[in-house]
Amino acid sequence: MITARAHTNIAFLKYWGKKDSNLILPYNDSISLTLNKFYTDTSVEFTSSMKEDEILVDNQPLTGSGLKRAKRVLELIRQKSGIKASAVVHSTNHVPTTAGLASSASAFAALAAAGAKAANLHLTDKELSILARHGSGSASRSIFGGFVQWHAGHDDQSSYAQSIQSPVNWDINLITALVDTAQKKVSSTNGMQAVVETSPFFPAWVKSAQADIEPMKSAILNKNLAKLGAIAENNAMRMHATTFGAVPNFTYFQPQTLAIIEAVRNIRKQGVECYSTVDAGPNVKIICASSDNDLIMEKLEPIMGHNQLLVCKPGPGVTYR
């Protein structure tokens, strides 16, 4: 039995929309930061004593689309390794599931890593990234630590993630404001599909998102927090604008989400470099320097409460335990 740990990542430049749902190929590249606080531990063992795969998440049998995607990753591992045996998979999520905190990213990165190693496959990080992508697109990025770029590609082998900067040796972190950790009313998969098929804003989103890639990489390599934050904030708002144009329209924002976004703008007007980003969920991440954490959290506490604010730093890539 092999156990792997993978951490969640937060996209500063978003993945939103698939041009190939079977291969999970995105319309545009994306850039993320792997975090230290949220992670998934997954153990995998292949055994001939089982007639079918046993997949438990937090001691509960996996069901629905998650089960289908996990079996897809396991089947790819069996094809690559020649193993015929069923798998026993035990996974523990140290992150709220389906709440827009990238739990699927850490989950499928950990599954791909543990499964490949349990099958005695010696995959490169690039190959692991491709394998993890078949479970969840954002999982391709959680193979790596620090700042990561996922290349959209045009087929199975050209769509993979790679490191931009790891370890991250400058002062940047995220304050995560946990607005709501309940399951989302609109899943990321369904939300993406609705936007791609019905939102007139989607083509403009793809064009602007791809144009953000090189400026964002430059900001990272030059350790320019202000430039990075401004690009990330604008990118997130443009992504969420596509949901308002969908038919029927929807949003992941809640009243507290908007209140925090506005508070971050007001704090920035006071001379503090801080920027908001929101994935497919109501929770807000504030990009800032650790030296400003206390001030920002003090300003946000009237909206959130201290126990709903969590500081995250850059985290590592996949490790084995």
Automatic annotation (TrEMBL):
Keywords, alphabetical: ATP-binding, Lipid biosynthesis, Lipid metabolism, Lyase, Nucleotide-binding
Gene3D superfamilies reported in the protein's UniProt record: 3.30.230.10, GHMP kinase, C-terminal domain (3.30.70.890)
Top-level class of the enzyme under EC nomenclature: lyase
Biological process according to GO: isopentenyl diphosphate biosynthetic process, mevalonate pathway
Molecular-function GO terms, alphabetical: ATP binding; diphosphomevalonate decarboxylase activity
Entry EC number(s): 4.1.1.33
NCBIfam families xrefs: mevDPdecarb (TIGR01240)
UniProt name for this protein: diphosphomevalonate decarboxylase
Taxonomic source organism: Pediococcus parvulus
Lineage per the UniProt record: Bacteria, Bacillati, Bacillota, Bacilli, Lactobacillales
Gene: mvaD
